[in-house]
Amino acid sequence: MSTYRTIGEVEEQYLRDHPNEVDDYMTVLFDDYAESGDTAALLSCLRVVSRVKGVSRIAEISGLSRKGLQKALSENGNPQFGSVNAIMHAMGYRLTPQKLTALLD
Fold this sequence. Notes:
This protein is 68% helix and 0% strand. Helix 1 packs across helix 3 (39-53) and helix 4 (55-62) packs across helix 5. The chain is globular. By secondary structure, the protein is mainly α. The protein has helices at residues 7-17, 22-36, 39-53, 55-62, 66-72, 81-91, 101-104.
């Protein structure tokens, strides 16, 4: 019987094998989120990156417990903005604004 991997497992293995592509992955992740507003997809991808970079390390740096980090990035997670910001910083990224000229002009 065949064992199939999830897309998250495939992405995780790819990023482990190509760590220099994590930055581009994060850029695409947030571009997609800006377009779709799909929080579940965002959290899923952040979960992948946290596993690649080390869940324990990310939890320690972010000030969250390992369980708290996993809960924040779970499928049903509803993390507070401060938690997402702390997780992003622990991963080596920051949230920055980008003006949407078409909406504001």
